[in-house]
Amino acid sequence: MCELMGMSANVPTDICFSFSGLMQRGGRTGPHCDGWGVAFYEGSGVRCFHDPAPCHSSAIAQLIESYPIKSENVICHIRQANVGRVTLANTHPFTRELWGQYWTFAHNGQINDFAAGEGPFQPVGNTDSEAIFCDLLNRLRARFTQRPSQQEILDCLTGACADYARRGVCNLLLSNGEWLFSLCTTKLSWITRRAPFGPAQLRDVEMVVDFQEHTTPNDVVTVIATEPLTSNEQWNTCESGEWRLWQGGETLQQGNVLKG
Amino acid sequence: MCELMGMSANVPTDICFSFSGLMQRGGRTGPHCDGWGVAFYEGSGVRCFHDPAPCHSSAIAQLIESYPIKSENVICHIRQANVGRVTLANTHPFTRELWGQYWTFAHNGQINDFAAGEGPFQPVGNTDSEAIFCDLLNRLRARFTQRPSQQEILDCLTGACADYARRGVCNLLLSNGEWLFSLCTTKLSWITRRAPFGPAQLRDVEMVVDFQEHTTPNDVVTVIATEPLTSNEQWNTCESGEWRLWQGGETLQQGNVLKG
């Protein structure tokens, strides 16, 4: 299994603190040593960093930890390979352009014998994760050649996720730079930080940050992770099948693909 | 105008030396201070770094200069904006997936009022460069839904380039990870280094490298750049319309899109 982390915020926010905790799981406090990657949206652009080397000892990870890249939507993944070799092409997050937007995807879980449906999007590597992403985009592109409404996208997306959730383990994060979508089938937690901000203590490494020193009273920042990253805060645990559409740190819509 | 740099090699090779010279042109010895980017292929994967900040003072550029990422195909670009604002979305190189391969593109020049033809590939930013790239991929995808032969790709590619070259300034580098394609309409130079290797002196900064210490006798490494990067070597100057298909540091095919 792998570790997912996402962020949705209403102001450009860096992830240095959360990343410092997460990267310890990339070979030190966790077994996820088969590479890592992170995507930061800045306006309509996206900056991705990928490294097939273990996260905890990566020069690029050290840059991300120390160089504050501010973003409203972030997707991060550290990998423990089960399907697909340890190569750059198999390193999440994956990115494709659809309707003039960059879409980014990371996955934790496994769907056996998954092949993407027909369409213009094809996997480059050989993970089930990238095949699921291509399948999702092919479904969207087959239904809408031009960009539809957010609700139409969401209906298509949750329909596809209902299929995936019934076929295997599929915790995922997806963003088009406007919003972040999360799906939990087995394990995903989240926390929303807003005023009054206080101190937070990482679980995986000796580090405390006082968010009050780095925020303004209107900031809303949600962090989503496979397992809680801090030890002194109350994280919310998603139930199986739960999806949420995040924007500006808030849940815009939510539901459950395994119910109703 | 911008600065292009590409590399084609028959063994994974780092670009730290050439990049050290090029990055000086990003705001120090050159005016190209509107961001920069670089794409390194590793197998079928590609690692891209983008920064809308000036290259010569970028923390990410310093990482690239000091952290040897070895690749057989590299495309690098530093930007002086003429069309399109200075944003991450407008920062070259651009990447798209076609036929299960990542295609990467960087452009130097300008084609006024260029709009990409119909097809699944749409620009995210608002540069003529990204529109040209999407147009090129839409032409390839319209003609071939599955991956054709290299010769069929090349025929389609050079046909499109003949159009572009007649409409404006279009120096470009393009790769799918297997090969590197270069087109010159106004300014492009290249050098192939092979045994016996010797010392090279950068033009833009006080730095000498003795390639003999870093190579084996069978290595073949071609560097392509808008202007020669070294002062003590003989670079080849492309003529207007000249294209070359590079693989393993050698020219596989060449021609001229402005001649019969």
Give me some keywords for this one.
homodimer, 260 residues, alpha+beta, Glutamine Phosphoribosylpyrophosphate, subunit 1, domain 1, seven-stranded antiparallel sheet, six-stranded antiparallel sheet, 4 helices, 15 strands, 35% strand, globular, GATase_2_dom (chains A, B), glycosyltransferase (chains A, B)
Spans where pLDDT lies below 50 across 5 or more residues of chain A: none
Helix/strand order of chain A: EHEEHEEEHHEEEEEEEEE
> Most extensive chain contact?
A-B, 34 and 34 residues
> Given the helix and strand composition of chain A, which structural class is it?
alpha+beta
Distance between the termini of chain A: 28 Å
Average predicted local confidence, pLDDT of chain A: 92
What amount of the residues of chain A lies in strands? 25-35%
How many domains of chain A, as an integer? 1
General shape of chain A: globular
Helix content of chain A: 10-25%
> Within the CATH hierarchy, at the fold level, what is the topology of chain A?
Glutamine Phosphoribosylpyrophosphate, subunit 1, domain 1
Overall strand count of chain A? 15
CATH superfamily of chain A: Aminohydrolase, N-terminal nucleophile (Ntn) domain
How would a textbook summarize the main sheet of chain A? 7 strands, antiparallel
Helix count of chain A, per DSSP? Answer: 4
Keywords (chains A, B): Glutamine amidotransferase, Glycosyltransferase, Transferase
Organism (chains A, B): Halopseudomonas formosensis
Domain Glutamine amidotransferase type-2 (chains A, B): 2-260
EC number (chains A, B): 2.4.2.-
